[in-house]
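=== Structure Prediction Worksheet ===
Name of assembly: unnamed complex
Input type: mixed (protein and possibly other molecules)
Chain count: two
Listed entries:
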Amino acid sequence: MAAEVEVSSPQLIAADEGYAVSADFQFELSSRLEEAVMRGVVLTFLIDFELVNKRWYWLDEKLLSRQMSLRLYYHALTRQYRVASGGGLHQSFPTLNEALRVVSRLRSWQVIEKASDFPQIKSGEGYRGALRFKLDVTLLPKPFQISAVGSRDWHLASDWKTWNVNLPAPESK
Amino acid sequence: MRRLLVIGGSLAGAFGAIVWFLLLISTSADTAIFERHYPVLIGMNILIALALLGLVGWQLRLLWLEHRAQIFGSRLKLRLMAMFGLMAVFPGALVYGVSVQFVTRSIESWFDVRVEKALEAGLDLGRTSLDSLLADLSTKGKNMALELSSVPENGRRTALIRLREQNSVQTASLFSAGGQLLASANADLSDLMPRLPSPAQLKQARSARQLSWVDSDGKKMILRVLVPVSGFGVFEEPRILQLTQLVPEALGANAEAVQAVYRDYQELQLARTGLTRIYALTLTLTLLVALFGAFALAFIMARRLSAPLSILAEGTRAVAQGDFSPRQAVYSRDELGILTQSFNRMTAQLEEARLETERHRAEVESARAYLESILANLSAGVLVFDRQFFLRTVNEGALNILGDNFEGLIGEEIQKWPRQSVLGQFIAEHFAMLEDTEWQGQLELDCPNGMPQILLLRGSRLPETSGGGDVVVFDDMTRIVAAQRSAAWGEVARRLAHEIKNPLTPIQLSAERLQHKLADKLTNSDADMLKRGTQTIINQVRAMKHMVDDFRDYARLPAPELAPLDINALIHEVLGLYETSEAEIETTLAGDLPPIIGDATQLRQVIHNLLRNSEDAMEGRENPRIEISTEQRGRMVRLLMVDNGPGFPPELLARVFEPYITTKAKGTGLGLPIVKKIIDEHHGTITINNAQPGGAEIDIRLPLHKEE
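=== Predicted Assembly ===
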């Protein structure tokens, strides 16, 4: 199945003693999904990041696995679209496109708070990063789950996008 | 294997029931776990339904195979299963149809235009309230901006605080065009830092002369208004005033509640088809699981019900083939259990009865065999007739005595016997004349070329209780009669010898003395007559003496001294004396004849007597000829002597072994009786017949020497 979401220009950069991930996701909501959002259905997007140490002699070593969820919904009372992240922060937007633009632009996601907490991740080493974006169907209300099974309208996910990371040295205070 | 499958099936069924129950719960209840795993549950249910379908298919296939193989009870099983299955299908289908209708209708009935309108109106109400609040706040903002514009830069801070108080606004803050906070006034002293507008919002506020919107901090709604404040002087930069006001809590909560319900309603409406599908799917799965489960159960029940019948059928077949071994009993307290138990009891009784009959038959058989062996080993002849005088049984003794195999006589009426008609006639007559239960009679049977047989017959009527009929027992008396005669003759001969011999000597002496005294005193002719007379007396007396001696010899024949003997050598020895005989003697002697047991002297006399008899008989005939042959016959040696003489006169044939029976002019008639006596004492047999076309045939059998 071809991916509905394209992941482009992913990068891992050093930030605030740790590392942050940035990327762009190109996707369009299907009309069905758009209607669902209009009617107040909460869409939950999951962004997964993995850092893998490639080993030729053995299975790859998974160094890090992070997940972020973003919730997009329509607030009918104020006629606003809201994007909320897991931490409880939320932003309001008057149009859906603005809200989607925020969702599709991943900026400075702090995947490693402090590099010193992960001694196995060494700067200067070559690793492989993997990023995936998808709509979490399991969090949809039940009736949509049934419709979502085998339906392309409800399917929104990218393949794992991998890129080679040459880990820069973390910024020090 | 079958048991395992049944157990596996029931386990799967139980598991299916649980999963299905969970599915039902999750459809109706709102539990997070079920909600998360809803598709998995659906999938598992489908799998279970498929597994059950497979089970039912397998069961049906089994049944079909059994039906095809015409196994007894398979048809009943099929019918039972079909009945149980139908009993499940009809109510199930009914409930299913009603439920689906009901669910679809009730889901449809949730959605009502009026409800939707009401919800929208409620939402609009909330919006309008918020809008009016916002409008109020922005009016205040405009007024405040107007007043602030007339206040110089350095006095704006106090003016702001005053204006906030006057207008009873929660916060009022002043920003530069770049978004820098210049002054702020807050009703709540704990929250000094106002919310910062974004550059885009600032820009928008400047260009639109006013910007107002509802913001939220996650829990509460906040009204925000941005108004540009024109500079006091010409060269002063314009500022932007921000007013924020918390929406009253009650209004906010109510509006949020209305919007939440509105959202739910919208969601439901969007999910209407999905919801119907969920319920339909759940119900369908329920129906399928229940139906297939019912079918599987029906199979097991049908099998259980028909199991006793199969056992019975198998048992019946086994009994028909004679196998009375007990069948597996079905221990149930219903009629089927009783049926199989009674069947087992019945087979046990049958078995018992069969054994009893068998035993009885064996007893009868052995008794009969015992009787038959007695009959067979009886030397007397036994003939058994039924009531109509049809011959039923003949024993071995009868066959031996009569020298007949009785073929064609058994099962034949006595009057119509083709052979042995004399015997049959005799028996029939005696039974016809019978007044009592028994009769006895003696019968002389003529043999075509041998001695007549004397039979002593006893007939008796069998008791009616044993089926009636008659039995005749007879003995061959020929030998006994002959022995009696011979004994009688011996006695006569001894007495005669004794009585006659005594007066003979005085007679002879008297005649001799007569001649001696009177020979000289008589004239020629008288003397001649005397001489002739006395001579005759003397001669005759001598002859008489000789005869008497013969009689004595016969009576006083000594007991034989039995010893192993070569009969061929003996024959050769005797034949030496007959080399000058007129008759041509031809011998055919068996080469490797084992020795017999006998007395050489006596047997020599036997051969001698027989040869002389033959010679005498053939005197004056042309080409006289005697053939002698020996051969082994079982435990006996047969010595056969055949001549071509005149043979025996038929009327004498029966009594040739009696003394004083002779055809010769000067014979004592003791030759053959002596032969007979010697052979008898050697435990042999002798038979005399007339050969065809002419001549005598003498057959002697002598026992072989028994080697230890």
